[in-house]
Amino acid sequence: MKIICVGRNYTDHIKELENQRPESPVLFHKPDSSIILKNKPFFIPDFSNEIHYEIELIIKISRIGKHIQTKFSHKYYDFIGLGIDFTARDIQNDLKKNGLPWEKAKSFDGSCFVSEWIEKSKFDDINNINFKLELNQKTVQNSNTRLMLWKVDELISYISKYFTLKIGDIIFTGTPSGVGKVGIGDELQGYLENQKLFNLKIK
Ligand code: ZN
Q: DSSP letters of 158-198?
């Protein structure tokens, strides 16, 4: 399986990092080795002094597909959840400055947290889902999928032009504003609508 992530998909987050608004979705991958195993914490790696959380709505692909038209995208996923795209921001800033790929900052072991999954059918509209992240019980990111520059179904169509989507693949759909640093002893809590999906410890 593979994990495909979308960068710069919320205007408020593009502004907070002083990035340019892209003309098409920014895509990168995380390998399967980046996933945090069930019930394990996130361990801060020794190569970074600035690990950021990024809460994102994630979807799980349920059918193989290539060149999927947007109007058919909804047939290719059954479950949604929340993910954290852990990012070594200090390393990413260096890589960006030099025009280099982001993998060392985004795809390291433990950089991918995946929550439990909720059936898509529980939600009326994929383009109107509230989600938020708390850091030690204080809300730090709070958004709605309607604020995405490219909506879920458009992303699936776009991604499938380049990468064949397979059963079990996961798409990270981008983070809204409010990203910030984690430290040892912190806890992150994620909510999809009002349902708490996870509590993740930072060690
Ligand atoms: Zn991200």
A: HHHHHS-B-TT-EEE----S--EE--TT-EEEEEETTEEEE
